[in-house]
Each structure stands twice: as C-alpha cells, then as structure tokens.
Amino acid sequence: MEKKIPITIDGREVEAAAGQMILEAARENGIFIPTLCHYPGTTKVGACRVCVVDVEGARSLVASCCMPVSPGMVVRTDTKKVRDAQRLIVELLWASGDHNCLTCEQNGNCDLQNLVYWLELETPRFSIQFPKYKPETTNTMISRDLNKCILCGRCIRACNEIQVNEVLDFSKRGSRAKVGPAFDADYIDSECFFCGECADVCPVGAITFRQSRFKGRPWEMQKVKTTCTYCGVGCQMDLNINNGKIVKVTGNRDYAQPNGGSLCIKGRFGLDFVNNPDRLKKPLIRKEKGGELTEASWDEALELIAKKFGEIKKKDGADSIAGLSSARCTNEENYLFQKFMRAVVGTNNVDHCARL
Amino acid sequence: MAGLAAAFGSGAMTNSIDEIEFTDLILATGTNTTENHPVIGMKIKRAVRQHGAKLIVIDPREIDLVKYADLWLRQAPGTDVAVLNGLMNVMIAENIYDKDYVESRTENFEALKKTVEKYTPDYVEKISGIPAEDLRTAARMFGRANRASILYAMGMTQHITGTDNVKSVANLSMLGGNVGIEGGGVNPLRGQNNVQGACDMGALPNVYPAYQQVASDEARVKFEKAWGAKLSARPGLTIMEIMEGAHKGSIKGLYIMGENPMISDPDLSHVEASLKHVDFLVVQDIFLTETARLADVVLPSACFAEKDGTFSNTERRVQRIRKAVTPPGEARSDWEIIAAISNRMGYAMNYSSAQEIMEEISRVTPSYGGITYKRLEKNGLQWPCPTPDHKGTKFLHKDRFTRGLGLFHAVEFIPPAELPDKAYPMYMTTGRVLYHYHTGTMTRLSAGAMERCPESLVEINPLDADKLGIEEGQMVKVSSRRGEVTAKAQLTEKSAAGSIFMNFHFHETAVNLLTNPAMDPIGKIPEYKVCAVKVEAA
Ligand code: SF4
Ligand code: SF4
Ligand code: SF4
Ligand code: SF4
C-alpha cells in the first residue's frame, strides 16, 4: 500500500500521496489553485507563481506546483497575502501584453482572462505597455501573436518534452525574453513539424490555429471525439465543429491511449479535404464504353450495378468478379464488403491494397 | 503478416504503443517512424530522452531517429536478412541469448543456429557494408537488454524477401526472449489507419473474419449458416492476381471501394491497361480519383468525419469514429452503399446503423466477441477480446504463443531482385514523408501540407550530385528499366552515396512507373524499397 500523508488545506484534513505536490493534492480534493505555467506531463518549473499558497511555518509564500507535501503540513490557499501576490502577478501580465479580448481567438477559453475575472480585477494598476511584435502569419497552420505571450514556457516544454521535437526555446532573458524557434525564425522557416502541440497547450491567445481564425468562438464549437483517418497509430482527437463544418482539430489530454492528446500535422491540419469542393456528390455513370461519365440518380446507378454483376455472374461465373476493399474504410464496411463478395456474388476474390 | 503468423501464429503487432515508451531497448528497422507514425516516433524519442532507453536504428537512410540513436547501422538496401542473421550469429557465439526461453517456448532452434553460423560479422560486413564491430556492439546491446522492443514497417516488408525479413525479425526477438513480455515484442507499424481492421474483417482472399480459413469446412459451414448463403471453398485471388486476371480477361467485373490502385500499384502502366480491360468497373470513393476516372459507375461516399464506425489501429485497438458533419450532396456511407447494392441483387442487408453491423461482427468474429460500441466509448478495446467481460489484450503470446511454441525459421539471405549495374547504377528506395499520406488524394488538398512539401523531390547525396553535375533544386530525370520521371533534386546526406530516395505521394511524379513489380512470393508485396535507376540532369 502506498503511504498516505495527512495534510490540512484550508482547514480541511486531506490525504496526499507520498511525493505529491501541494497543487496536485489540492486539485484531487476539489480545492482550486490557479496555475499558468503548470502543464501535466512536463517539468514543473514554478515560474509564473500564481499557484502560491501559504504554508504554516514557511518564511514566504511557496509555489504549490513544486512543493511536495510533508506530514502535518498546514496549507492555506485563500489568505489575503496569497491573493495580493496573485493579483500583482496577474496585473503585471495583463499590463505587459496586448490583451484586447474583443478580437482574440481565445476569448472565452483563456487562463489569463479567467484569472483576471476570478481575482475580480477591474483594471491593472500599471500602465499597459507591450512589445509591439509583428504577429506571425507566414504559414497557413499556426499563428503567433507574442504580444499576448505571458512567457509561461508551456509551448517550449510541450515541444521539447511531450513531442520531443526540440524546436522551441527562450531567446534572450528577462524583460526582453521571447519564445520561438532558434534564431527567432518564423515557424515556417524553422525545423517545426507543425504538430500543433504548442498551440494546444498555450494558455492564452498567443499561439492559435490559423485556419480557425474568425470561424467560431470557443463556446460555439461542438467537439466530436473521433479517430484520425491517416496512419495506423489511430490517434484520438476532437473535431471542432461550427456551422456544420470542421473548423479545427484539437488534442485532448483526457483521452489516454494511444496518443494521450498529442497529434501530428496530418491529423491536425490534414482535414481540408473534407470540405473540398471537388468531393463527389452524385453517382456518375458511363453510358457506353469510351463515353463520358455523367451524373445519374442513385436508383439508376444501383440498378445498373446489380444488373451488370448479375449478368457477369450468370455468364462467366462468380469467380470472374472481384472486389477490392479498403484499409481506409471502417471495420463495419470491410466486414460488409467481404460478406457481399462472398455471400452475394459468391466468390472469395476479395483483397485490399494494404499490401502496398 | 505471413512471416509473423508463421512464427507466432498471429500476424498482429504483439505489444502496445504505450509500452514503447517504457522499455529498455528499442530496435527500429525499416521504419521512418517520426515521419510515418509520428506519435509513435514521439514515444520513442521520449523513451530515449526521458526514460533512459537505448535505441538502435537499422536503416539505409539517415532518418530523423538516427539523431536520437545510440547506434545506427546503415546497411545496403535489401540486405536485412544478412544483418539480422549477423546479429543472431554474435548472440549465439557469445552466449548472450535467452537459453531458458529458447528451450521452453520455441522450436527449431537448431536449424536457425546452423543457418546463422556463416553470417559472421565479417561476412555480413561484406554483404551489407555495416562495420563488423558495430554489428557486434548492436548484438551485445540487444542480447543484454532486459526487455527489447523491435519496431518495423514497410522498409522490411516491401522487398521480394519481405516475408523472410519478418521471419528474421521474429527469430531475433525470440532469441532475446522478448516475445510475450511487457515492453518487448515484434511490432509491425501499419501504414494506413485501418489495415489491421481490414485484415481482421476478412478483406483477404483466403480468410473470413478473424482469420478463419475459407478452405476449412468448419469455418465455411459456420459462415454459411450465419449468412444464409452457399459459400465457395476456393480461396480467391490477391490484388496482384486480380489485376493480372483483369489484364488477361478472366476478371470481367471489378468493384473497388475507397482505393486508388492507379497510384499505389507498383506497375502503373500495367494497372491502367488492366482496369481499362475490365468489362464493368465500379469505384466508390470520396473523390474522382485516377482509378475512378476509368470506372463505368462511380459512387460518391462519405468520409470518416461523416459517418459512424470503428477502425482497428496498429496495436489491435478497436476505436470509434463518429459522425461530426453531414456528407456533401448525395454521398452515402460505404456500408449503406454496399447494403443497397446487395438488396438490389436479391440478398437482404437491412442494417439501420453501423452499430448493428458491429453486433453481427462480434457474433461471428471470436477475437471481437466482447466488443460493443458501449464498451468502446472510453478508450477502445484491444483484441483478442472474446467475451463481454474480457478487458482486451495488451500484449500477445504471454506464456504461450498463439500457435503453441514459437517457431524459428532458418532464413538465408537473397539479394534484391534488381541491383545497380552499368546502365542503372544507383539504388532507389521509395517511401512517405511526414507531410503527406499514401497517394496524396487527401493531404494534397491540405494547404498546410502543401506549404511544407509542395512537390516530389529526388533526395540525393551531395557526392553523387557533384559527380553527376546536379545542383540543389535542379530538375533531374530518373529512369529505370520500366519508365522515367522527372523531379527536383534535393541534396541531402540522408541518402547514402549511391542511393536516391523518392516519395510516392505525387501522381505527376509517379515513382511507381520506376519501381520493380517483382513480388515477395508469400506476402505478395512488391519490392518498392529497392530498384536500380539512372539519374541525370533533365
Ligand atoms: S490572450 Fe486572453 S486575455 Fe489576452 S486578449 Fe486573448 S483572451 Fe484576452
Ligand atoms: S508545432 Fe510542434 S514542432 Fe512546431 S513548434 Fe509547435 S510543438 Fe514544436
Ligand atoms: S506562447 Fe503561449 S505557451 Fe508559449 S510561453 Fe507564451 S503564453 Fe506560454
Ligand atoms: S495524428 Fe498523425 S500520428 Fe496520429 S493517427 Fe493521425 S497521422 Fe497518425
């Protein structure tokens, strides 16, 4: 049995696991502590410090994401000292960025915005001064507006520790710090693989999906869990639907296997084909050999197929008909296809292209 | 598939994707994982960078994984059997194989031992070009690892010796005592989303769902009863034989669902002639593909986002897809179309949903017996999952192989069907790139992918380029005994000197005009990975 460690948070006695951080213990027990830089599955850096708590006996506030529990620890998450510290941090972040939520893609799904509201801030006590970086729109997949960046470093850790693509890092330090690929390059000119992990983890509107710009507010999106249609990994992902169209694809950390929320460029940005105007919309029939394919009704098309296959089977035998099923189609469809070839046509001439 | 089934009794990936991250040693051979299975590539990279796993890469190309590898063996294309035999030679000679395992869980070890005897590191160096010392190091790393996972993909199977290659991989894994344990195993990474499922469902000429043989009376009677129809006992034709039959005129009617052999097939001119020769061709697809253009009837189908159903991923995990948007125009789900044709032909198929089909599948497919949509909701299920209370199977062959004992195969090295010579002095290998998928039908419509990779490139080593007077970005002509294509040159050390690499995503640069249709006699997979070509400035 794992040893349980008794601690007190906000007057409640709770049990934590050995080695657990205060933050995790609190969250497991339904006690809210805000975070910005914290991201599951990556190194705990304790950089933003909005997760500070008051620990009895400690000289100063501690970052709860990096402080392991110890037996008998008494923690308060809601003292004035804690709130004042959080307000100071959030006001500084607010004042150092271009936070015009009116036009921000993440409006309604932003950790900074939520924190401002939760801390009941009316306006920052500092004057707003942001670096005036040019927003990056040099590729069609990912946009970056580093004027909204709060330097939490999540994108860097996601790129290096989750995807291990090793593209992002801090350039410069201190007040002029900036995140991005080496040599301050735009994504398109870097080694970036466009997996989109950095955009999924960014807590604010600094890294966003370009193709969904102005295509729907977060609360308008309907998310449908599905399986990627490309390679054999079978990643689980959320199609974000608005007005009957796929607007973007997001990962979801709650889906465990096989991908734990991570995706690659194909699953993430490869779904333009769904809405392509060249999609087939009506059956086509070639009335005579050498003629053109022309639009037909389903009735005509199905009737013709049944008639022709029937004729060939009668004249030349079932084995003169063959079928190619598809590794692209579902199990249900593959099952039905081979059942059709075997039970209806009467041949085992069924294969698929996956050998190739 | 055939190779693994012969060795273990099942052709499926033995272990799970998740285990790759937490094993001791990964041997990646014939898989450019970070490009073709990027999320598995991610797990390999995490295993190496964060969990102290060792990585050995065996590949003729300097793929991205090499950057993360402890050891990279660069073999001449098509010499895999020799390399694998060499590894086993060292393990046996130095006594670093799992003797207890070999004794209690396998058979035919003596034959293997005898065959690999002559594949000494020096002999293998002559064949493959891999320094003898590196081969020894690799064998020691592999032999001494507690748990070693072998990953492979089409770089192993797309050879005339594809089945042999896979048998050798199986040999190596068993020799290390790695099959049937967590974190170990032989793990073929499937290229397409539902290859595993298509095979499981019996979209193969010789088997019904769950690999029940059509030639077996017992299986046939079972399906005759389940389907209420008389069934043929004669195994059918493979795709290559179907094309051949179409060409000769013995195949008169052809029904193609969701495939585009006009780009994926190894010998394109032959395929085109074959398809044109068929009396009646039906193609069902989401686009008017090169194949659909040749059809007599084209049926518009719904894509994965427009229908319900399941895919089975490479680790045997059956997972749901869900209808998120409506299909365009009059397009219908493939299953609805099949059922409609069947009904017109006098055999009633009245399914009201994909779920209802899954209910039938689980009745006739023992390994899917416990699979229901309700149970798939959370995290899918890995087959075998025979009963409603079975939790699914994380790794296969625990305690016992599907066939009983694991079978070693004594496999000799056979060189590729076509080697470079005076007229065609370079090797060409083909494959995929990160940004595109298969025949490009879908990814080429994606703005992002086209931005990153807008055209086919000829990847050539700078030394060769220099000799041939070819500069970066210049158009070059690549020809083989079968045809020629032109594309831009990309100078890169990824290609070994004497070898070029091309991808098969672009129909304008149909590399399959060049490739050799010589096939593996058992797997019937063509040798896409090696042919001889000539490269010149265009
Ligand atoms: S990043 Fe957040 S706070 Fe800043 S503008 Fe966007 S929504 Fe508002
Ligand atoms: S898209 Fe992926 S590879 Fe590119 S910077 Fe973001 S996390 Fe790194
Ligand atoms: S871009 Fe986003 S994730 Fe990256 S440091 Fe800035 S705010 Fe954090
Ligand atoms: S997201 Fe990428 S890795 Fe995942 S299934 Fe799709 S193509 Fe494969």
Structure, described:
The complex is a heterodimer of chains A (356) and B (538). The longest helix of chain A has 19 residues, at 298-316. The mean pLDDT of chain A is 94. By secondary structure, chain A is an alpha+beta fold. Helix content of chain A is 24%, strand content 19%. Chain A is elongated and about 95 Å long. In chain B, 33% of the residues lie in helices and 18% in strands. With 538 residues, chain B is of the alpha/beta class. Chain B folds into three domains: 2-189, Dimethylsulfoxide Reductase, domain 2, CATH 3.40.228.10; 195-382, Rossmann fold (3-Layer(aba) Sandwich), CATH 3.40.50; 426-537, Barwin-like endoglucanases, CATH 2.40.40. In chain B, helix 5 packs antiparallel against helix 8 (121-128). In chain B, a hairpin with a 6-residue loop joins strand 21 (516-519) and strand 22. The radius of gyration of chain B is 24 Å and the shape is globular. The longest helix of chain B has 14 residues, at 38-51. Chain B is built from 21 helices and 23 strands. The two termini of chain B are 40 Å apart. At the A-B interface, strand 10, strand 11, helix 6, strand 13 and helix 7 of A face helix 4, helix 12, helix 14, strand 9 and strand 10 of B. Strand 15 of chain A pairs parallel with strand 9 of chain B.
Average predicted local confidence, pLDDT of chain B? 91
Can you count the beta strands of chain B? Answer: 23
Bound molecules: iron/sulfur cluster
Lateral arrangement of strands in the main beta sheet of chain B: 16-20-17-19-18-23
**Which strand order does the major sheet of chain A show?**
2-1-5-3-4
Overall shape of chain B: it is: globular
Entry summary:
The complex is a heterodimer of chains A (356) and B (538). Chain A has 356 residues and is α+β, with helices and mostly antiparallel strands.
